[in-house]
Amino acid sequence: EVQLWESGGGVVQAGGSLELSCLASGFASGDYIVAWFRQVPGNEREEISCISTHGITYYAESAKGRFTISSDAARNLVYLQMNSLKPQDTAVYYCAAAPAYKGQTFYFPPANDDYRFWGQGTQVTVSS
Question: 28, exposed or middle or buried, with CB in 10 Å at 0-12, 13-18, 19+?
Fold first, then answer.
């Protein structure tokens, strides 16, 4: 079974940077796409970015130009480098994994409902 653990959250001033890490296990059983989501209490969970095992990436408009997703397959890690942080980036950040294939078809980016596995989340707070 796939398991995910996030780390790297914290408190940072506006304009600062943070790098989140997602450690994954259980991927040997299949090909997965890993994404970063965030959620503010009372709001829906928002996808920020995702990456395939082939290095294909997707970014939400809110992340383009400021956030960078990357992966280290040998260490089963996916990173989210966040620069120029704003107070509105304050949220709990989650990593999630979705199967990359439906039958023989590669789906990218996955629909939000396709993400089956979730980490516990890490809090990011950006102070003004």
Answer: exposed
Question: 97: closest CA among 10, 6, 11?
Answer: 6
What is the pLDDT at residue 29?
A: 61
Q: Kindly indicate the confidence band of residue 89, based on its pLDDT and cuts at 50, 70 and 90.
A: very high
The token pair at 36 is 């970063």
- Report, in this order, helix, strand and coil percent for the chain, each rounded to 5: 10, 50, 40
% of the chain surpassing 90 pLDDT: 83
Residue 28 in this model has a pLDDT that exceeds 90: no
pLDDT-based confidence at residue 30 (cuts at 50, 70, 90): low
Nearest to 96 by CA among 81, 73, 116, 124: 116
Q: How buried is residue 48: exposed, middle or buried, by Cβ count under 10 Å (0-12/13-18/19+)?
A: buried
Q: In what order do the strands lie in the sheet with 67-72?
A: 3-7, 18-25, 77-82, 67-72
The dihedrals phi and psi of 7, each to the nearest 5 degrees, come to: -155, 165
Beta bridge partners of 5: 23
